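Lab notebook page, bench 4
Experiment: in silico fold of construct C2
Operator: M.H.
Input chain length: 987 residues
Purpose: comparison with the prior construct
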Amino acid sequence: MADLVAGFLLFILIVVVIVIWASHRARRRKFDAIEKRIGRLERELKRLAGQLSVAPETAAAATTLPRSPVAEAPAREEATPELPPAKQVAEAPTVVTPYEWPAIEPPEVPKPPSPLQIWSERIRAQLAHEEWEAIVGASWLNKIGVLVLVVGIALFLGYSFVRLGPPGRIALGYAVSVAMLIVGVIAEHRLRYRLFARGLIGGGWAAVYFTTYAMHGLEAARVIDSPIVASLALMVVAAGMIGHSLRYRSETVTGLAFVIGFVTLIVSPISGFSLFASIPLVAALLVLAHVFDWRALPLAGLILTYAVYALRFGVLAAGEVEPSMAAFILGQSVLGIYWLLYEGFDLLNLRRRGMQLDARCAIFPLNACGFFGVSLVQWPEAAPHTLYLFFAATAAAYLLSTFIRARLRSPSSFATDASTLDRALFGGYEAGITVAAISALIAIFLGLSGLRESLALLVEGEALFLAGLTLRERYPRVLGGLVLLVAMLTLVEGHMPRADEIALLGLSLHAWVPLALLMVAVFYLNRWLLSAAPLIGEQAYSYVGSALLTAVLGEVPAQYLGVVWLLFAAGLFEFGLRRNLTEFRFQCYGVAAFALLALAAINAFGAVTQASRPWLFLGVAALIAYGVAWRVLRLQPDRLPALERGWLQTVSSAAGTVWLASFAWYALPSPVVAIAWGALGLGLIEVGALVALPTLRLQGHIVVALALGRLFLANFTNFGVTAGVSHRLLTVLPLIALCYYLWATLSRISASARWEQKLPPLYLYAGAVLAAVLIRFELGRVTTVLGWALLALALLYFGVRWANRDLRFQSYVLAILTFARSWSTNFYIPASLAGAFGRVTTGAIVVVSFYAAQFLSPRLRPAAAIEGSALHRALLRFDAHGRAVFSILATVLLTVLLFYEVSGHLLTVAWGLEGVALLLAGFALHERVLRLSGLALLLVCISKLFIYDLRALETIYRILSFAVLGLLLIGVSWVYTRYRDTLKQYL
């Protein structure tokens, strides 16, 4: 409680300092503006003076110019008598003396005096050129002496003499007081003693006032028992003081009288009557200040009033006198009367002082600080549980003051460019409504708790907002907005974390939900009411309303949360689009981000075991996201900025793609997911091409890539069978067809993006890779080479037919892989194939396929000069020798097969026969690579014969090898010799 009170007092003091400082800065800016305008006027006058001084010279120069024919024509028409030539006299030239223009000096504009000069002039005027010593001796010492004398009288009346009773003390006090008044009145008629006399008059009236007070207030001098009679006596004395002061109209005399009166109250014993006796003093002071338009006196009286109460009467709660509830109530009543008197005085002088910056401008803030400061020192000690009533009452009082200020000093009476601080400083309603709003805020915090606290803050803030809107005043709207913000923060920070639940319409909800819905309605209503001209920051009403509504929608079951938020975001977007309100579109994006996070965290990754059908909500979310993307796509170009339009299309369509792919993942069997993703990717690519949306096509390519990748993770290792057909075959073949379809489709599109122009070869290679892997898993370990060989042959066929180098390269790579697998797997680890020996069967088929591929390959010649990188040039040369590649692979594979199948004794013979066969085929088919392969194989045989067979074979096999190989070599030599001329065309 003490911290709250101290904080409030600190706030009031800061407000006062800010108001005074802002007023000073405003006046300083106005003085600077006046000085700048004066400087511009001086420069303009100097410029005009310079132009006026140059004007005569211009006129003189104009007289020396030759006369124009038009000007001379009338002169020739005049009738002049003709004179004889001898008697003509030459006319003397006319000399025109220029007129001397008097120099005009710009008037000197006096510079506005500084505040220091103004105060120094006032001091000199008050001194009236008197010596300071005379002023101090005649005036100051007089007032100090009178003060000391009155205090002495007060002490005398309070002192209990044994021989002097109460009537005697009162009589003696009146005698001294009246004597001072009589001497002062007589001496005041003489000019020389006027200053001295007015001090005696002020002190005399103060002494009379205190003596009258002592008749009931002091026990030692009490002659009146009735407090009513005593109060009437004090009022009569106060009226006499006022009437007598009206005769002199001196602020000094009156001020001295009241200062002495307050001092006498300080030195008197403490009692309830002494507390009440200060009220007539304050009332009389303010009446005189208002009648004579005194400016310093009311401010000094205000400071004295609260200072006397705080220093003297405030000790009733501090222990000097036994505190009681009656004394506390009396003290607060007197403080309330103080506040009412000074507030009323300030209201009466609003129109009179206008926009003048004087001491009266500080009455409102100092009155508030004094009233709150002194009250908050006593109230928490005397009645801490009812402190909220104090702030509620002050809020009502300041609200009434606000209405009066608005009538007396209407906002239209201020300049249009007047700031809020200026208006508050010069009597506008802003100061009163600020204190009222803060007091009501504190009263709510102290008197209420729970949801009622937030509800009361909501009511206060909305009342301020509607008042400002109705009166077309901005400041109440600003205050209302701040209070509404506090209401929302108290709800979020204090009540939302609690787990209290209620039943509403059969639903179990948190207790804060109804109040949050009410706040949402209020915030949206305020934003609708401000649709014409909202202030800076007032668009926050819709943001806060959307945030609260998002929190309320979070009460739905977790599995529905993402979809509900996404629907809410779509509604915000549509509303902002139709009303052309950017703020609602931005709110849509924020809510949509939360929705996507909820879908990912709950439905996609976390709710598989919690929700019965998570894929259902993912599908709905995907449809909503695609609907938003389609809505944006159908808009006119001027409805949304280009950047926002493109960004929104990309994000919404990408979100729809993600959630639809997730939907397929959860909703479909594992082998079918890849097909669904492939179909989704194909649809996105086709729709993206149809509506010319590259981002949609990019999403389609990404989804297709994911589908192809999933085949390796889930489909190739799936051993399921349906209707006798494996799941691999049923799921991989459609994606292979999809790859070739996309390759063919994208190859025909010439207007695609640069990044998309690089995709057709990738799809072409992806189809070949998938087909090769599928063959590996479908045909098994032995027959894989057969499928690869046939696939390589098919790729080569279409590559030659369509002149597609990529297909030919795929066939080369696959042929090399087939060759390597045949040698490493089929030949090295033979197995049975349908009852036949696997090595011979598979090897023969592969060799035949390679020789067939050789003859399918085109006869290409490498270009003389090939441009491009080294790798590119190497690939082109390799493609030019494709026939040789297939031939060499077939020959080597056949040679290795003979190595494994023919006995070591007859291997040389078998290789020799193979070499001769290659030679004959090369001659017959005009294939040099076959002839060279045959010759190379014969050379290998000769080398083997002398290096190995001669030492390792038995005699019979050695003889047979030499004989057969010799005959073969002789036959080959005879062919080359006999048909030499014919064979030249083949060589």
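Observations: The chain has 36 helices and six strands. Residues 793 and 883 are 12 Å apart (CA to CA).
Next step: discuss at group meeting.
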